[in-house]
Amino acid sequence: MPPLKTPTGDLREVQILLVQTSDARLYKRLLAVLSLMEGRNQQGVAEELKVSLSTLREWVRRWNKGGVEALKPRNHGLSREEMEYRQGLLENGIEEVKMGKRFVAYRNTSPFWKIVAEAQGWPEEKRMVVVRR
Q1: Are residues 105 and 126 in the same domain?
Q2: 41 secondary structure, DSSP code
Q3: Is 96 among the domain residues?
Q4: Residues 6+ apart with CB under 8 A from 102
Q5: 131 beta partners
Q6: Which residues span the domain enclosing 91?
Q7: Within this chain, do residues 84 and 61 fall inside the same structural domain, yes or no?
Q8: Which of 8, 41, 50, 127 makes the best surface tag, with the fewest CB within 10 Å?
Q9: For residue range 40-89, what is the model confidence (pLDDT) as tens digits?
Q10: How many Cα atoms within 13 Å fall on the side-chain side of residue 26?
Q11: Looking at the domain assignment, is residue 102 inside a domain?
């Protein structure tokens, strides 16, 4: 494994960001960056924060590349609007789901759509078709 690069940037900036953030995940990442900037041992920082060295390395890489914005947690779940949209499909039935300008999906077989298909009584052969517009 290559040696861990030292985070670049202003120590005071990181201290201010630590005080200002209310996000626990961002706080932990900033604390890691600050600790390494102060010259603390990387193994000790990883153990204290209960993360692997590879996670610590990733946080430093992201910090050096994009600062605090790159350290902010990414939301991998569905947005509230998407959840409401899907709930509406479950309640009202569907014929097609728009996936953008170039594709349309008809009765997909993902677990979500499998439940929809069974609830709607769709035959097995009509559960999955994706077409290009």
Answers
A1: yes
A2: -
A3: yes
A4: 132, 133
A5: 104
A6: 80-132
A7: no
A8: 50
A9: 999 999 999 999 999 999 999 998 888 888 998 887 777 788 888 777 77
A10: 19
A11: yes
